[in-house]
Amino acid sequence: MSFGTFKRLISDPDSSADFVGLVERLLDLRHEGDLHFVDASGNGVDLEEAHYRIQSHEVAQDRMYNRAMNIIR
């Protein structure tokens, strides 16, 4: 999934809660509002980094893609 699509799904009020929760579970992050996440140590993880981490992990990438396809269709 492209970064643009990822950002749109995270930002869109109709899909953001679902996608924010998915990012939190897949990457063990906590949502801090807007497009900001933090890890267990409290270090900030920007949206581009979260996208990169998901794209580099096959299982996470599959789950994100499947969820997106259910919403986009």
Largest sheet geometry: 3 strands, antiparallel
Could you give the distance between the termini? 15 Å
Shape: globular
Residues in helices, as a percent range: 55-70%
Query: Total number of helical segments?
Result: 4
Total beta strands: 3
Rounded radius of gyration (Å) = 11 Å
**Quick check: average pLDDT?**
92
Strand content: 5-15%
Helix/strand-derived category reads: mainly alpha
Strand order of the largest sheet: 1-2-3
Low-confidence stretches: none
What is the N-to-C succession of helices and strands? HHEEEHH
Estimate nothing, just give the exact number of structural domains.
1
Structural key phrases:
73 residues, mainly alpha, single chain, 3 strands
Describe the structure.
There is one protein chain. The chain is mainly alpha-helical and 73 residues long. The chain has one domain (3-72). It is built from four helices and three strands. The protein has helices at residues 3-11, 16-27, 47-55, 58-72; strands at 30-31, 37-38, 44-45. Helix 2 runs antiparallel to helix 4. The longest helix is centred in the last third of the chain and has 15 residues, at 58-72.
Topology:
Elements: H1 3-11, H2 16-27, E1 30-31, E2 37-38, E3 44-45, H3 47-55, H4 58-72
Antiparallel strand pairs: 1-2, 2-3
Concise overview:
With 73 residues, this protein is mainly alpha-helical. It has helices at 3-11, 16-27, 47-55, 58-72; strands at 30-31, 37-38, 44-45.
